[in-house]
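TASK: fixed-backbone design
INPUT:
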């Protein structure tokens, strides 16, 4: 047997799975008299356990069916007054997606071929208008959407698609060219392996190019960015191509100079960290609402001055937002507030002003002082081929400076969010909590120090 080509599940993907399990467990509370089929790697046990429960005519969780090479575990099956059942598929998303309908259609196929009659088919998803007040109320947290007609309409296709998938599984690994299917409906874990033939500076890095255009180029045998006909490139993409061909960074000094000169001192470099739990953990918040729990602020009072650093990190399971806003007022009423991709910080602040109107005037003033450090890069006033078509902070920083996030215990925002929730709301040992909080401070501080480093590097490029 060939080695497994799939990479191990990374923490980000595991977090998605964990959210799904937590949401699924909450949905079971909608039917307190329900019974669950225990999980077993022996599929015969789960299907036999389901058969034993069906005659009891109680809601069943994780009902399992296997037939003709198809296997499914239904989240919830609820008996109706007759001999039929309603099927409820639970998703942690906030709306029904086409791929979810296909999931229900497949389950319907497997269940009904196993001899169980289904009546109504539902997709249960999180209602993001729900606001937590006290204990979670599952009947308000979830919305069940009837998708019977949509899933039934797919039934004629299911059998042929199942046969096709079984044929592929039983045969040799198919030789399929990369394309839009690599990320639709989900990102394929083998994209890096399948794209290994592409050169270092390739057409997938074309800035803001539609995927259909990228794969059309590849189908035509054009994989290197330098080989794309210039007539097919946008002005920004032409800059990319020229930077690769020349081996030199593109620097448009005049607009960079004008933009730098527009910044007012004291200059405040600001960055937020937030969490957005699927199931709200703080009263007064909604599912997936962004809750800021940390900020870092580097302030340079005048050009060339050493920066001052101020930080805030909520350490308890209380609502962090009031203390966050109070601490943020140390920013003062003068000077430019600089962020990277500032839309995020501004949106968080506006939501805070809605929830805490006493801070409305402060937030309004702050909002009007923002400038975005991404501008010199997404306007392509500066571009280096080593950015590989990205204007992100973590791509521009190492290109312009000697600084990277390599080796940091926490090195990206998703990890910061997961680790914060784990140690503040998860009940870990004090020493572990202190270690993670220290790592969070280091990470957020790095984000705002990076803004100053990039500013200094841009200044140096103009000399």
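OUTPUT:
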């Amino acid at each position: 047997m060939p080695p497994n080509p799939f990479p191990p599940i990374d923490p980000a993907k595991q977090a998605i799975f964990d959210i799904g399990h937590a949401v699924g467990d909450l949905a079971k509370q909608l039917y307190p008299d329900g019974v669950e089929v225990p999980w077993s790697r022996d599929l015969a046990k789960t299907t036999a356990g389901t058969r034993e429960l069906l005659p009891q005519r109680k809601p069943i969780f994780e009902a399992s069916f296997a037939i003709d090479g198809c296997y499914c575990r239904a989240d919830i099956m609820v008996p109706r007054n007759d001999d039929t059942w309603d099927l409820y598929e639970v998703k942690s998303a906030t709306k029904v997606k086409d791929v979810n309908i296909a999931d229900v259609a497949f389950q319907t196929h497997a269940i009904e071929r196993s001899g169980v009659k289904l009546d109504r088919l539902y997709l249960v998803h999180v209602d993001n208008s729900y606001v937590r007040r006290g204990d979670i109320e599952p009947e308000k947290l979830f919305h069940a959407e009837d998708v019977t007609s949509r899933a039934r309409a797919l039934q004629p296709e299911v059998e042929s698609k199942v046969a096709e998938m079984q044929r592929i599984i039983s045969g040799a690994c198919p030789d399929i060219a990369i394309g839009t299917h690599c990320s639709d409906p989900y990102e394929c874990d083998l994209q890096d392996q399948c794209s290994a033939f592409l050169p270092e500076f390739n057409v997938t890095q074309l800035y803001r190019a539609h995927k259909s255009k990228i794969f059309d180029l590849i189908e035509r045998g054009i994989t290197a960015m330098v080989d794309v006909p210039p007539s097919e490139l946008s002005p920004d993409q032409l800059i990319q191509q020229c930077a690769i061909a020349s081996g030199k960074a593109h620097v448009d000094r005049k607009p960079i100079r004008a933009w730098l000169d527009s910044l007012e001192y004291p200059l405040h470099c600001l960055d937020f960290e937030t969490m957005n739990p699927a199931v709200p953990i703080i009263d007064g918040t909604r599912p997936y609402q962004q809750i800021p729990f940390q900020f870092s602020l580097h302030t340079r009072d005048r050009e060339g001055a050493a920066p001052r650093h101020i930080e805030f990190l909520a350490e308890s399971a209380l609502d962090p937002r009031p203390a966050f806003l109070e601490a943020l007022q140390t920013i003062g009423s003068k000077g430019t507030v600089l962020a990277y991709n500032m839309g995020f910080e501004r949106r968080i602040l506006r939501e805070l002003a809605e929830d805490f109107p006493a801070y409305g005037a402060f937030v309004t003033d702050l909002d009007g002082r923002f400038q975005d450090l991404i501008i010199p890069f997404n306007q392509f006033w500066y571009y280096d081929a080593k950015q590989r078509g990205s204007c992100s902070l973590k791509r521009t920083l190492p290109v312009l400076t000697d600084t990277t996030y390599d080796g940091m215990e926490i090195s990206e925002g998703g990890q910061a969010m997961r680790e914060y929730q784990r140690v503040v709301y998860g009940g870990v040992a004090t020493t572990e909590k202190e270690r993670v909080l220290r790592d969070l401070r280091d990470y957020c501080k790095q984000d705002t120090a990076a803004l100053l480093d990039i500013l200094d590097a841009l200044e140096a490029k103009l000399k």
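COMMENT: The first strand starts at residue 35 and ends at 36.
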